[in-house]
Amino acid sequence: MSLSSINGERRRLKRFKVVDGAFTVNSTKPGLIVDVSMEGLSFRYVDRKKWPNHSEELDILVGDYEFYLPQIPYTIVSDTVTASDSPDSSFIVKRCSVKFGDLSSSQKRKLEFFIENNTYYEEENVQMFVSA
After folding, report:
1. pTM for this structure?
2. Among 95, 115, 106, which Cα is nearest to 39's?
3. Reduced to 3 states, what is the DSSP secondary structure of residue 113?
4. Which of 6, 9, 37, 101 has the greatest number of CB atoms lying within 10 Å of its CB?
5. What is the pLDDT of residues 37-55, one digit of tens each?
């Protein structure tokens, strides 16, 4: 399966579900990546009121630096409260969706590698793993 667009969606490119263990890290909201495309991603994080509200770049990290893609420019598209996996209601879990800014050719190649090796495509209860 290629990383090409799918018609009829709000986004130009289909987002792929990310396998467990991929994180986004920045100075404001580190979190667990939920899905990704060549144009953006979404991640879940625990809202901490004392964290700064703004950063201009994020990093993608898998495992113990098994994969690392730094300094991806982005803008926030949405940032909403979502259901928590924890029974402890004292945590506020949010889902943040971001759109990538201009990526260098090196960043694009690394992002495509990340998608090909750390995601799967889910359609109508059928999972298809993306492969190179």
Report:
1. 0.79
2. 115
3. helix
4. 37
5. 999 999 999 887 776 667 8
- Give the H or E element holding residue 129: strand 126-129
Q: Which helix (H) or strand (E) holds 92?
A: none
Count of positions (residues) in the chain: 132
pLDDT band, very low/low/confident/very high, at 129 (cuts 50, 70, 90): low
Which candidate, 79, 60, 59, places its Cα nearest to that of 71? Answer: 59
CATH superfamily name and code, 16-129? predicted glycosyltransferase like domains (2.40.10.220)
Closest CA to 31 of 40, 20, 22, 44: 44
- Whole-number CA gyration radius for the chain: 15
